[in-house]
Amino acid sequence: MSTGLLHLHSLLRWVILILLLVTLYQSFVKNEKIKSTSLWLMIVAHVMLLIGTYQSILGRFGWMNLPEGVSVMKDSFYRFYLVEHPTLMIASIVLIALARGKSKDLNYSAVNKLLLIALVLILAAVPWPFRGEPIGRPWLP
Ligand code: HEM
Question: Which of 15, 16, 89, 96 to mutate to test the pocket of ligand 1 (most atoms within 8 A of CB)?
């Protein structure tokens, strides 16, 4: 089950990024369809939060399976996957939820600002292949 969830988590990054870009575009051109796109974006972001929380606690590199003697903050691999990645991603999911609220009132400029910051956080926190070993992961599951 864990492998399936990891693949889903990896694949959904593209769904989040596409929905985020579409919602951002809609906030620029002031399209009312932003109400439904931002809802889908928020739903997918929360699915990522659920899977990510499971992985961080019970996954192969999760807190419950830490090898003996590892100091998370001193180990760049564990610091990335158990602290930096979750913190930045949770911050981006909060921004996505706030943007969803603003899009219900068609407050396009607020949605715009919130989602731009969320996009930067996500791009910075994804373990892209070019991050190199041991953090980098493939483009696709
Ligand atoms: C927008 C939200 C998120 C995106 C786009 C994202 C993206 C990714 C990607 C692309 C991977 C690598 C998957 C692979 O091996 O191919 C990954 C791994 C991981 N993510 Fe996330 N993530 C998000 C949110 C979260 C959150 C909120 C948490 C924790 C609360 C989390 C915890 C993890 C962990 C622990 C791994 C490593 C799992 C393993 O290798 O066993 N992620 N994430």
Answer: 89
